[in-house]
TrEMBL record:
One of its GO terms (molecular function) is rRNA binding. Residues 134-155 are annotated as: Disordered. One of its GO terms (cellular component) is cytosolic large ribosomal subunit. This is Large ribosomal subunit protein uL3. Belongs to the universal ribosomal protein uL3 family. It comes from the Bacteria. Keywords: Ribonucleoprotein, Ribosomal protein, RNA-binding, rRNA-binding. One of the primary rRNA binding proteins, it binds directly near the 3'-end of the 23S rRNA, where it nucleates assembly of the 50S subunit. One of its GO terms (biological process) is translation. InterPro entries: Ribosomal_uL3 (IPR000597), Ribosomal_uL3_bac/org-type (IPR019927), Ribosomal_uL3_CS (IPR019926), Transl_B-barrel_sf (IPR009000). The keyword Transferase does not apply. Part of the 50S ribosomal subunit. Forms a cluster with proteins L14 and L19. PANTHER family: 50S RIBOSOMAL PROTEIN L3, LARGE RIBOSOMAL SUBUNIT PROTEIN UL3C.
């Protein structure tokens, strides 16, 4: 069964396995998430559930969202995400999903917004190398070099690697292993790093590779 949940990145720490080996993990506060909407083939053409995570004051919700939550008879939620599932018959509007939807050993894909790094040059942004500094380079050793389009085609092709905004984009890290699930505190420890800073909203779903 395809599973998914919304969470918040808490930070990184380390755990030890039964052999005493250190495992670097990211701790995610996963849920509780409430099913706000249920989509079926008959009504929407596909099967999915919309989950809500995090409480928010009713005063901060616009009229359209307030009507959406009122129809579902669910308290307003700060974050909404949709998960396409193979079978939604076991879920109903108002159901609450917690961290125990996943278990230790599960493979998951974690998606979130990466750290913003501002305006960066081509060396940091794309890993290009510096210019030679033996002679003749001048003060432009870290610059991108010539665009060199000449009279034909007299333009720079789209996709040319140039300096610009880096980071703060949606990133998915695939095939991570769930190391530990703390059902009492709704925490999931995933091996390795995930996108974003502490407090970033992330989604966990079954790995498409596994």
């Amino acid at each position: 069964m395809v599973k998914g949940i919304i969470g918040k990145k808490v930070g990184m720490t380390q755990l030890f396995d039964e052999n005493g080996k250190v495992i670097p993990v990211t701790v995610i506060e996963a849920g509780p998430c409430t099913v706000v909407q249920k989509k079926t083939v008959e009504s929407d053409g596909y099967q999915a559930v919309q989950l809500g995570f995090g409480e928010v004051s009713a005063k901060k919700v616009n009229k359209a969202a307030a009507g959406h939550f009122k129809k579902a008879n669910v308290a307003p939620k700060k974050t909404l995400r949709e998960f396409r599932l193979e079978d939604v018959s076991g879920l109903n509007v108002g159901d609450v999903l917690k961290a125990d939807v996943f278990a230790a050993g599960d493979k998951v894909d974690v998606a979130g917004i990466s750290k913003g790094k501002g305006y960066q040059g081509v060396i940091k942004r794309y890993g290009q190398h510096r210019l030679r500094e033996s002679h003749g380079t001048g003060p432009v050793a870290r610059h991108a070099g010539s665009n060199g389009s000449t009279s034909t085609p007299s333009r720079v092709f789209p996709g040319k690697r140039l300096p610009g905004h880096m980071g703060f984009v949606r990133v998915t890290v695939q095939n991570l292993t769930v190391v530990k699930v703390d059902t009492e505190n709704n925490l999931i420890a995933v091996k390795g790093a995930i996108p974003g800073t502490k407090g970033t909203i992330v989604t966990l779903a079954n790995s498409v590779k596994a």
